[in-house]
Amino acid sequence: MDNQHYYYKKQEVIEQAKYIIKDETMGIKPVYANNGALHSQVLCQYDIKLVTIRPYQIVKDSSIYYGCDLEGINNSAKEILKDQRMLPAVISQVNQFCMIPLSSAKSDDCIWISFHHVIDIIADKNDSIIVFTNHNKLRVPISRGTLQDKLNKSARLITTYSQRQSHIADLYRMSGVAESREGYFY
């Protein structure tokens, strides 16, 4: 397993065949097994999981688990972030799980990071070092400016979905007030 670009406190490595993105998921890195098969190294808050499927498959499976498919998620993001490429994927709107591809999503070398777990980005020549919420670090082959743009797109996407949900909730409350006869004297 390739840990050369991940600086972390001692964490347990757990091997498994399937994985669903959840709150503890900080990032997903592609790694090659000794037999040449592409696997995923899932960076979690308290451990590292070695998953025997590709990162893109984890994102795809997680999307379906939370009630959408990746195509629908991408179409929605394209509608909000017009004329943009390599869009973030809000895997679960309810939980606000937003995964950011650092290159083309279907590419074998695509690293995915979780928007909510990035607390800092340190520029390092042409690369960046991501500091996660547990203070572990991941060096990625992308400039600080480009990574910051990706985080900004993610924030806009999450905010738009949140505003839409609030708007629907407000409309529901207002319709309930208008239709309710409770509290009126006859």
In brief, what are we looking at here?
The protein has 186 residues and is of the alpha+beta class.
How would you characterize this protein structure?
The chain is built from three helices and eleven strands; from the N terminus they run βββββααββββββα. 31% of the residues lie in helices and 30% in strands. The chain has a seven-stranded mixed sheet, sandwiched between helices. It has one domain. The protein is α+β, with helices and mostly antiparallel strands and 186 residues long. Pfam families: ComK. It comes from Metabacillus litoralis. This is Competence protein. InterPro entries: ComK.
Write the layout of secondary structure elements.
Blueprint (H helix, E strand, L loop, with lengths): L5 E2 L4 E5 L8 E8 L5 E7 L2 E5 L3 H11 L4 H11 L8 E4 L4 E5 L10 E3 L3 E7 L2 E6 L4 E4 L3 H36 L7
Distance between the termini: 74 Å
The DSSP helix count reads 3
Beta content comes to 25-35%
Structural class: alpha+beta
Largest sheet: 7 strands, mixed
Return Rg in Å: 19 Å
H and E string: EEEEEHHEEEEEEH
How would you write the strand order of the largest sheet? Answer: 2-5-4-3-8-7-6
**Average pLDDT:** 87
